[in-house]
Amino acid sequence: MARKQKAPEEGGSWMDTYGDMVTLLLCFFVLLYSISTVDAMKWELVVKSFNPKAEEVSQIVIEQEPNEEGMEVPGGTDVPLEEIEDFEDLYYMLQEAIAQNNLEGEVELEKGEGYTFINFRDNIFFDADSPILKDEGKQILDAFNTALDSVSSTIGEIQVLGHTSQADPDRPNNPVNDRVLSSERAARVAAYIHQNSQVAPEKIIATGYGQYRPIASFDTAEDRAKNRRVEILITKDDAVVQSLEEYYNEIYSSTDTE
Q1: Which of 80, 94, 136, 154 sits CB 3.0–4.6 Å from 70 for a disulfide?
Q2: 142: domain range?
Q3: Looking at the domain assignment, is residue 53 inside a domain?
């Protein structure tokens, strides 16, 4: 008489379940470790981007005033600004400077691969048709220079770009006045950075484009105001060099789609 075969056990082995549980626990503890240290400044900026009117960000971020020599950095250690050398942190430091000076509506900040791009409305720095840098503009540049100094050794180039706008939608500006004004404004900003920062002078370049690199139309006063601007393009020392058109395609096309 044939021996009756034992029916196979239903389901998988208990070792499979045990192995899955151990793997999940390991992943859980790795996750806990990865978030054990919070970059307070970056966390605050992320939260504020979702809720700009929030007075308090979170109890996770412990508010501390920067000491006289530096600023609060990840891990809760006070590190002097001159010891912060990561170019990628420049973007967040500039965001902090914009927030502290209440410039959210007047300054646009973009970050790309190996560069940081700043767009200032020209009324921050200059009165109408004037190339003289205002005291308010100097104070803003002082705050930005502090951030630049912290990563000066990693900066490849700073391009200051001056732009005007066509005053009459139906008639171009006088080319001499237009180009001279934009060039002198760019030169004034570049000279101030030169005189008041630790960035090597040969890395600072000023260019005036007049009305010929608009980012909006000339049809309305609002659009014409967008075209009147000073831009600062800061590139990393080992970044791949691109043309201005390539930077513009990345920066302003992404802004238009937001």
Answers
A1: 80
A2: 86-256
A3: no
